[in-house]
Each structure stands twice: as C-alpha cells, then as structure tokens.
Backbone:
C-alpha cells in the first residue's frame, strides 16, 4: 500500500538551509503543491569555534521557509541517530571496519523516522528531499497509481548524483519520495536560487564532511582522527612493511586508518600506504607504493544485499547462468566499474546451496582498496539496484603472486635504507 494515496497534494520537505533544499521548496511551490518544511536535528554538538552549526543551518532554513510562506517545523532525531547509526559506527571502527554513516543515516533516520514524522505527525501525501536522484514514478509521483515497483534512478547531473547514499532505502519509502532537483544540474539549481533572491544560499559553501565531524580547515579544528579518539580508546600497535616484514613504525589504533590511505610513514622520502589492517593482532601492514599489488583484487564478497525494487531475476535464472552483469562503485565520487555478480555458494554437510544472503562480485580489471565495511552500490543503466556491505576482498594480486610480483617488490624494498626513527 502506498502511503498518502495516489494523488499528491501536500508535500513535507526536509530542509537543511542549503541551496538544494531551498530550490526544492521553490520548485514544489511553483508546481502547486502545499509544502511544509522540516529541519532535522540529527547531531547535538558544538564545533571548536564555539558555534553549533546546526543552529545556524536551522535559522537559514527557517528564513527560507518564511520568505516562501512555508510552515516550518523542527524535529529532533538525535537519539535515533545515536542509537541506530552512531553506535554501530563506533563498533565497526573498533572492529577495524570502515563504515559509511551517510548511507545508514538515510536508510535508518531520514527515510524511516522522518517519513513517519511527516506522515503521522504532520500529515502529507509525499515526502521530498534535496537529494540529486530521481524516482521512476516521475517528478511529481504521477506514476505511482500503478501497481509497479518504484525504481531509484541516477540524477541527470552525474557529478552530483546521490543515489549512492540512498541505496539502502526501502521500497515503501521510495514510493512516496520526491527529488525535485534530480532533473537539474547543480549549476542550474544555483541559478534558480539567485534569481529567486537567495544569493547568499546559492554562494554558500557545500558541506562535504561527515555531519558530526565536518572538515578540518582552520587551525585548531579537529579532523576525523581527533574526533574518533573521543569515543574509541587508542590502542598502539606495530606498522609492518608487507614486503620485508620489518616493523617500520607505530600506530595509535586501527580505527584511525583505512585501506589505501597514505600513512604517516616515510622512508627516504617515499610515502607508505595502508594495505591491510587486523584488529585482532592490532597490526597495520603498509607498502611503499600506492599501486602496490596487495591493494588490488579482482573479486570481493558481500553480506546480505538490499534490493530496492526486488532481487534481479538474473541471479536466479538458469538462462543467465544465475549471474548478473551490472556495474558498481564503493565510493560515491569514483567512476562505475563493470562487474559480474552472483549469489555465493554455501555448504552444510554433503549439501551445497545458493546463499541469497551473500554475493560474490567479480571484475575484469582488478580494483584498488576494496574495504570491508564499505558498501558496494550496484547499478544497471540508470537504475540503482541497491547495495551490499563488503565482507572481504578476494585474494590480492600480491597474494596470488601475479607476474611474480612478490619477489619484485621484496627486491625493491630491500634496496631501501630504513632510518631508525621512522614513525607515524
């Protein structure tokens, strides 16, 4: 059953004080909808300058609503965010994983609790956000009076597309979700804002960091490593060169680092990159080449996939060899990579069976830094199929010793002189 019925008259819009939600409000008003705005407080904190950025954003959102004649609400989801997103994030980092809180915030807070608030507390026919994405039901959900499933589509502006971050939302939420700026480019969105008199908002710098950390730009402002240390106790351990087995430094905890990241180790001016980390042994392995073969794998395994519009038929069809050819990305800004996907096989005693709660994903060209804890988001053309959390990468090119690479890199490492005071 579709929430709000088929005809859309009243829309509740999530407002952040940014240009995308501002223009979304403008467009919805111009289309003749009755619009009410909601500012969500998901994090309770003050930055190092003594300013609560959420307060400022809320004021700007309320100013926009006032200028447009939109009723404005503020809802507090701090408890929900803490219990359903942040606590899992801390557990993941402690376990040596690299989670994506933005995907979880959308699926567990914005497209669940916010939707419930909009429909049950305010009352509406649809919910809108300023995400750059599209709904197959149409800009105004004019196609949702059918019995078909809704499909999440990439935005027209591929450089700003945010379907990646919406890849875990439910079908029920998507059927009642509108994305007013999904058909526009960012440049056009900013121009619409300026023409409507919102010059300051159009020129406002975009927030790109994690909501509760932000970006470390000014002196004295913390970055992620400083922030996470407030919640996870540092646990010093060895940094080991994967080629030589030598200890080349010390880290303060595996939660501070992710696969593929440049470490603070430098020998003879040569930077080292994290290629592996083990929370149990508390050892981080590094290599002196950002393209080291230990960083590359041609397959990976996932946990249970979430399909927004149902599991693809190809995964169960003999005619397609139970394999789906599609594309994926693990980081929103990375280009899509072609892949072949199938359910993993499991066995019990003498029986082998298809495990629909696990995927194995293979690529023609090895992919760098496949990281446990991150989400692989899958696409078929314009359609975002859904996503699955990465459990582990397959064996690396280094492990498989492709082209006798292990000996080559060991010989290269042996020629490096290691200063005694190398550390992180």
Residues:
């Amino acid at each position: 059953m579709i929430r709000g019925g088929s005809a859309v008259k009243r829309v509740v819009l999530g407002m952040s004080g940014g240009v995308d939600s501002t223009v979304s409000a403008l467009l919805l008003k111009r289309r003749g909808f009755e619009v009410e705005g909601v500012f969500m407080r998901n994090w309770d904190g003050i930055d190092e300058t003594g300013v609560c950025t959420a307060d400022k954003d809320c004021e700007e959102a309320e100013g926009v609503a006032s200028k447009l004649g939109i009723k404005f609400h503020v809802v507090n989801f701090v408890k929900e965010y803490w219990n359903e997103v942040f606590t899992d994030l801390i557990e993941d980092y402690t376990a040596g994983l690299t989670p994506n809180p933005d995907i979880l915030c959308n699926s567990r807070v914005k497209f669940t609790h916010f939707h419930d608030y909009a429909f049950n507390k305010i009352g509406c026919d649809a919910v809108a956000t300023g995400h750059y994405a599209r709904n197959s039901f149409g800009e105004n959900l004019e196609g949702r009076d059918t019995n078909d499933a809704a499909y999440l589509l990439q935005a027209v502006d591929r450089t700003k597309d945010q379907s990646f971050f919406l890849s875990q939302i439910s079908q029920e939420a998507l059927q009642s979700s509108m994305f007013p700026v999904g058909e526009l480019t960012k440049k056009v969105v900013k121009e619409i804002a300026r023409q409507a008199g919102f010059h300051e908002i159009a020129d406002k710098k975009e927030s790109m960091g994690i909501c509760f950390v932000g970006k470390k730009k000014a002196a004295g402002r913390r970055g992620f490593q400083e922030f996470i240390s407030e919640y996870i106790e540092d646990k010093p351990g060895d940094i080991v060169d994967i080629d030589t087995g030598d200890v080349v430094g010390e880290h303060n905890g595996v939660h501070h680092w992710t696969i593929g990241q440049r470490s603070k180790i430098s020998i003879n001016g040569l930077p080292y990159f994290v290629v592996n980390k083990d929370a149990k042994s508390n050892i981080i392995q590094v290599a002196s080449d950002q393209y080291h073969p230990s960083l590359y794998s041609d397959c990976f395994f996932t946990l249970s996939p979430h399909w927004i519009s149902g599991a693809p038929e190809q995964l169960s069809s003999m005619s397609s060899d139970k394999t789906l050819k599609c594309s994926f990305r693990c980081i929103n800004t990375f280009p899509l990579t072609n892949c072949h996907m199938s359910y993993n096989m499991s066995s019990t005693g003498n029986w082998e069976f298809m495990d629909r709660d696990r995927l194995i994903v293979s690529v023609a060209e090895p992919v760098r830094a496949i990281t446990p804890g991150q989400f692989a988001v899958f696409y078929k053309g314009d359609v975002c199929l859904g996503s699955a959390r990465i459990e582990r990468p397959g064996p690396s090119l280094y492990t498989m010793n492709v082209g006798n690479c292990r000996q080559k890199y060991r010989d290269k490492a042996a020629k490096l002189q290691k200063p005694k005071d190398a550390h992180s």
Observations:
- The chain has a mean pLDDT of 90.
- The longest helix spans residues 78-94.
